[in-house]
Specification:
This protein is an alpha/beta fold and about 220 residues long. The chain is built from 10 helices and 7 strands. Helix 9 packs antiparallel against helix 10. The chain is elongated and about 55 Å long. The chain binds S-adenosylmethionine.
């Protein structure tokens, strides 16, 4: 089955021999890719909505992977079971992802790896998970059509990060590269536009945005 560049990259980052729970699987294309990649990965495809799960079941059946991929209906981590060691959450807003984790924080204590790709509020997701038992092992950008997405690999453990590391991503700051520059050039432009439309009364917000623009300039210009 055809898979887009974003999901393929997420799939390529999943650890070999892992048992993955894909929360918000939608069509389950990622799970099908994971199992086909033959890294001895087992997967549970779960979603809160019945419609997507019906589509997922059809896709899994068409690929004859009913034995390898289990489908579960439920909200967030409610579909967890104890054989799972890796959780994938992608294609959702960062606040929804934090909400899912917050609801069942105890479950995350059993998890070794989180593969998270939020559509927004990436910094908030990093801060939340790093305050709750994980550190950032890797960060990757992937460009799919005209969008650039972040994929963050969290591992169980503790590390301290500075505000600048949280803002850019501690691994991104070290690796940088072409997509880092393109991503943060876009972030800078959107902040410059925001500055022109924000009414004068938002003084503090404007100050923070100006500071962020300076931080971005410093990082992409060296
Ligand atoms: C935009 S799709 C993303 C699908 C896929 N993960 C991807 O990256 O392309 C978001 C999916 O998450 C599901 N979803 C949203 N909130 C959820 C929750 N709390 N628990 C489980 N699934 C959820 C939606 O029903 C939808 O199918």
């Amino acid at each position: 089955m055809k898979i887009n560049a974003r999901l393929k990259k997420i799939g390529d980052l999943a650890p070999a021999n892992s048992f993955c729970l894909d929360i918000g699987c939608d069509h389950a294309l990622l799970d099908i890719y994971l199992v086909h990649k033959n890294k001895n990965i087992k997967a549970v495809a779960s979603d809160i909505a019945e419609g997507p799960l019906e589509q997922a079941k059809e896709n899994i059946k068409r690929e004859r992977l009913e034995k390898e991929i289990e489908v579960r209906l439920g909200d967030g981590l409610s579909t967890y079971s104890k054989e799972i060691d890796t959780i994938i959450i992608s294609g959702m807003g960062g606040r929804n992802i934090i909400g899912i984790c917050k609801k069942d924080l105890k479950i995350l204590k059993n998890i070794d790896t989180l593969i998270i790709s939020p559509n927004n509020y990436q910094e908030d997701v990093k801060r939340y998970l790093c305050k709750n038992g994980f550190y950032i092992e890797n960060e990757e950008f992937v460009k799919d059509k005209k969008f650039i997405y972040q994929i963050i690999i969290f591992k169980k453990g503790k590390r301290k990060y500075t505000n600048i590391e949280y803002f850019f991503g501690p691994v991104f700051l070290v690796k940088k590269g072409v997509l880092f520059r393109e991503y943060y050039e876009r972030e800078m432009k959107s902040r410059e536009i925001l500055l022109t439309i924000l009414p004068g009364k938002y003084k503090l917000k404007k100050k923070r945005i100006k500071k962020e623009i300076e931080m971005i300039k410093n990082e992409i210009e060296d």
